[in-house]
Specification:
393 residues; Alpha-Beta Plaits; eight-stranded mixed β-sheet; four-stranded antiparallel β-sheet; binds nickel (II) ion
């Protein structure tokens, strides 16, 4: 008799066309953050037809629950469902039918892969030694859907949470597992400098906010190069500067915006504190008033649990080649789950030069190699089944 593991893998292969069909349907009908009404409706219908209890969450999210034998052990699997405000430039039969909206990050594939796993797990329900929670999350792209789901308490009883992201920088079919930080923290800041406007020919009669901005842009980089441990990656980017209207007037005020990225919350807190101090002190030294504020909610770094990473490497070995992916300074709200419960965010290679699938995430020509999506279904199913069966914390 074949093992459950090999059964899962062969079922995932059989479900390949189902997963591709679902992915194409979601791809043709992309929905932006907190607008995933059609997508979550389809997901909920599928889950109900498979015998899952369903709960609505985070405005447009759905959670499916499947209860196995043991009541105390709970494993969560997560897929995000939202698209981006990008006009698709691919010429494919499943091209987005909504002008200006596109699944350019692969969340259509994530939703479809997890629906495939929903089928397999329902089929082996009597072999599950615990509860499976399938989280179909809205608003990953700048909407912090994950944070809402955690705040609603859906992670409170979860022993481990797994997520997969299709990954454009990895060749098709490679599975990327990395312990520790994988994605960065993200913050957005805004600086306001108030001086005193006047004639540019008589700067002595004004207080120039622009020279303060010029100094600050450079001073921020000195925090990174002189104060942060060089072995700790950190980025400060000033991305927006506004001041003045014409050549012969010193403006009254100036504004800057930017972002901070790190892999370490202590480093992040330190940088925020120092940027604020430097902004205020510099401005004061040059006779201006300054305000420094964080404008978006902090996204923590996505930190993968070491033991879960080892476990996954062992469990997923029969599926294909496992590699250690590069870290990225990009951010993911999966980090709200990994702050709440031990978690593992796995990346699945979908880059295929032969098929011309070479564009990065958020590009108008982004696409995924659909022939490996069954692997995502297998990864979810294997991890859930094996975690409930044999993982001990
Ligand atoms: Ni994404």
């Amino acid at each position: 008799m074949p093992s459950i593991e090999s059964l899962i893998i062969s079922r995932a292969k059989e479900l390949s066309s189902y997963v591709i069909e679902m992915r194409r349907d979601f791809h043709m009908h992309p929905e932006l953050k907190y607008e995933e009404v059609r997508t979550s409706g389809i997901v909920e219908k599928e889950l109900k037809s498979l015998g899952y209890e369903t709960i609505r969450t985070a405005k447009t999210g759905v959670i499916g629950i499947l209860r196995g034998r043991n009541k105390d052990k709970v494993v969560a699997l997560r897929a995000d469902m939202d698209a981006l405000p990008i006009q698709e430039e691919n010429d494919v039969p499943y091209k987005s039918r909504v002008p200006g909206k596109m699944h350019a990050c692969g969340h259509d594939a994530h939703t479809a892969m997890l629906l495939g796993a929903a089928r397999i797990l329902a089929e082996i329900k009597d072999k599950l030694e615990g509860t499976v929670k399938l989280i179909f999350q809205p608003a990953e792209e700048g909407g912090l859907g994950a944070k809402l789901i955690v705040e609603e308490g859906h992670l409170d009883d979860v022993n481990a949470v797994f997520g997969i992201h299709v990954w454009a920088s990895l060749p098709s079919g490679k599975i990327g597992i990395r312990e520790g930080p994988l994605l960065a923290s993200a913050d957005a800041f805004r600086v306001y400098i108030k001086g005193k406007g006047g004639h540019a020919a008589m700067p002595n009669l004004s207080i120039d906010p622009i020279v303060v901005v010029a100094d600050l842009i450079n001073a921020y980089q000195k925090v990174i190069s002189r104060e942060v441990n060089p072995l700790e990656p950190a980025v400060v980017s000033v991305t927006y500067v506004r001041a003045g209207t014409t050549f012969n007037v010193i403006p009254e005020d100036a504004e800057m915006r930017g972002t901070i990225r790190t892999f370490n919350e202590e480093v992040r807190n330190y940088i925020v504190k120092r940027l604020e101090e430097i902004t205020k002190e510099y401005a004061r030294a040059l006779r201006c008033e300054a305000k420094f504020e964080l404008t978006e909610e902090n996204i923590p770094p996505t930190v993968n649990d070491k033991k879960l990473a080892e476990f996954a490497r062992k469990v997923l070995a029969p599926l294909g080649e496992i590699v250690v992916p590069e870290r990225t300074m990009g951010a993911e709200d999966f980090s709200f789950y990994t702050k709440k419960a031990p978690g593992l965010f796995i990346v699945l290679g979908i880059r295929n030069e032969k098929k011309g699938i070479v564009y990065p995430h958020h590009h108008p020509k982004f696409d995924v190699d659909e022939d490996v999506l069954w692997m995502g279904t297998a990864i979810h199913s294997l991890l859930a089944y094996k975690f409930l069966k044999e993982y001990n914390e």
